[in-house]
Every structure is written in structure tokens, then in C-alpha cells.
Design brief:
Layout lengths: L1 E4 L20 E4 L7 H8 L4 E3 L9 H4 L7 E3 L10 H6 L3 E3 L6 H16 L1 H9 L15 E5 L3 H12 L3 E5 L2 H9 L3 E2 L3 H7 L2 E4 L13 H4 L6 E5 L10 H7 L4 E5 L20 E3 L8 H19 L13
Parallel strand pairs: 1-2, 1-3, 3-4, 4-5, 6-7, 6-9, 7-8, 9-10, 10-11, 11-12
Helix pairs in contact: 4-6
Length: 320
């Protein structure tokens, strides 16, 4: 069967150990995201199995309607907002779900916190320009780390904060806050108290209709001077334009961002890149070798099982 793998920006998928699972198959790997639907259809017109790299390409009804040969979409990780399961079912396309790990995104979140509070990227850039000790940062120790969303990533972040002698304040659903208190951490009484109390805030929520734009510009305006907000989850969790508006207002906050509303970004004039108090990374939360082996290993196993007539992990089994 003809297999196509999308959005391998780093040209690394064929170098993974798990790629051996597909060694007997006809595989094409695309390295650039194609935003033009007509061109994408042309690239995929003969594809029978599509392997996605997380959520880098949106699978629309318009696209599916023009891919009559497509039989299976093998997802790296779980199905999310880039793909509508009902529409896939309507076009008789099976969707196989995979697994992931919270380790790499949690570590990246903590790295962004450290880089943001210590202003490490700016210091490195200064040294490259022949300057010495151009700025001064602060510690995490003794600060209050606010965690919105106490799931797998939020729980790991709380333990990291504890190891750095920081206090932990959790906001989120009632069950999340109860779990945090059970684990020995503090729970915020209100969202307003959360934003006005925490020195460092991380947003670790799933994106859905209830969480879209859940962090408002008004929330960010409650933050302390020199407080930090880090988003490695989804850009759309923060109200569109809110971060830029607050930064342009002159409010003194620090920002660490790994996710963007439109990706990839090749425009060096992208607004967030030009604030001294912002650290940007190119959505690398899960982009790490062991994570790729987990994500793609399961996705490729699902592909081979389907080819062998024993489909597994199908999210819409009625198609079969």
C-alpha cells in the first residue's frame, strides 16, 4: 500500500529505529507543510495510508472528499482538533490513534521557565555580539509557580517546582485542584487570585470548545511586575492578540512561548520575536528522539497491523 508521512520538518523520520517497521512498504515522506489544499490533494492523490506528524496538517472535509484512495490515517498521539472523526467516518477513512509521553513537553516547559527568568537567550546573544553580562535574571527558588491544568504535565511540573524549592499554586477544574491539595500543593480560590499571586504561570490544558481563548487579556493584566507566563500547550488557549496587546502596553511581564496559531513560522518579522522579554521556541515540546520513537513507533505498528488485516487502536471502528 502507498504510505505518505507528512510534515517531517527536520528530515529525521527515516533515521528513527522504528522506521524499520515500514522497510517493506512504499513510503513517501513530505518535509514541508503544504497549506494550499489543491497542491496537497495532488501530493496525496494516490495515498492509501496517511501518517500524520501530530497536528501539523489539518485534515479537512474538503481534503478528504478529494482523496478517494485514502483508507487509513495513522495518528501520532491522540486525535485532536486538526481532525474531525465523524467526517473521517463519513468518508470511510479509519483513524488509528497512538500514544505519547508527557516527559519531553514537561522538560521543555521547565527549560522555557529557566531561560525566561534567567534571561539566558538574551545573554547568549549578547556574548555573540561581543558584549559581556548585558542583563540580570532571577531565581525560581522561593517563587510561586502557578500551574493551570493539573494533568500528567501539570503534575510533573509541580514536582520540578518542588525540587527547585518553589511553591506551587494550581488552578483548573475542581477535581484538578482537589488532586493538587491531596498531593500537598496549594489551590487558588479564584482565577483572579491565581493570576495576581503566581510569579510564574504555565498553561497546560487541552484545547477544546471550552478552553479556546480561556486565558483572557484581562487575566494577563492581573500579573505581577516581572511575572512570567509560559505556554507550551496550544496557542489558542490564550485569547487571540492578548499577549501582544499586553506586551505593547508596556506591562512588565516575561513570556515563554512554544506554540503559535499559524505554524510553521518563517517570517523573521513575526511580532513576538521582537520583544526583549519574550523567549520563543519553534514548537519543540514533543520534538525529541525518544518521544519520536514512541509516537511514530506506535503509529507505524498501527499501519502494519492494518496492512496485515488486523487493525488495532481504531478510533472509529464502524468504518471497518
Amino acid at each position: 500500500m502507498k504510505i505518505t508521512i507528512l510534515d517531517d520538518y527536520q528530515h529525521v523520520i527515516k533515521t528513527l529505529e522504528c522506521f524499520d517497521l515500514l522497510k517493506e512498504q512504499e513510503v513517501s515522506v513530505l518535509h514541508q507543510s503544504e497549506k494550499d489544499n489543491a497542491k496537497l490533494v495532488d501530493l496525496l492523490k494516490d495515498t492509501e495510508i496517511l501518517v500524520l506528524t501530530r497536528e501539523r496538517t489539518e485534515i479537512t472535509e474538503e481534503l478528504l472528499s478529494k482523496l478517494p484512495n485514502l483508507k487509513l490515517i495513522s495518528q501520532t498521539g491522540k486525535v485532536s482538533n486538526h481532525l474531525n472523526l465523524d467526517i473521517c467516518t463519513q468518508y470511510n477513512v479509519a483513524v488509528a490513534e497512538g500514544i505519547g509521553s508527557p516527559v519531553a513537553p514537561t522538560e521543555l516547559t521547565w527549560a522555557l521557565i529557566l531561560n525566561t527568568v534567567r534571561k539566558i537567550p538574551q545573554a547568549i546573544q549578547g556574548m555573540r555580539e561581543g558584549k559581556w553580562q548585558i542583563n540580570i535574571g532571577t531565581n525560581v527558588s522561593g517563587k510561586t509557580v502557578g500551574i493551570w491544568g493539573y494533568g500528567k504535565i501539570g503534575q510533573k511540573l509541580a514536582q520540578y517546582a518542588k525540587a527547585f524549592d518553589a511553591k506551587v499554586l494550581v488552578w483548573g477544574s475542581e477535581s484538578s485542584r482537589a488532586k493538587a491539595v491531596e498531593d500537598g500543593f496549594m489551590s487558588a480560590d479564584t482565577k483572579e487570585a491565581f493570576f495576581s499571586t503566581a510569579d510564574i504561570i504555565t498553561v497546560n490544558l487541552r484545547l477544546n470548545k471550552d478552553t479556546y481563548g480561556i486565558v483572557k487579556e484581562a487575566d494577563l493584566k492581573l500579573m505581577k511586575e516581572n511575572a512570567v507566563v509560559v505556554n507550551t500547550a496550544r496557542a489558542e488557549l490564550i485569547e487571540r492578540g492578548a499577549l501582544v496587546n499586553v506586551l505593547n502596553s508596556g506591562q512588565k511581564i516575561l513570556v515563554g512561548v512554544d506554540v503559535y496559531e499559524e505554524e510553521p513560522i518563517y517570517d523573521t518579522n513575526y511580532e513576538l520575536l521582537h520583544f526583549e522579554n519574550v523567549v520563543c521556541t519553534p514548537h519543540i515540546g514533543y520534538v525529541e528522539e525518544s518521544s519520536y520513537e514512541i509516537y511514530f513507533g506506535t503509529a507505524f505498528e498501527n499501519v502494519i497491523s492494518y496492512i496485515n488485516g488486523n487493525p488495532i487502536n481504531i478510533a472509529n471502528p464502524q468504518v471497518l
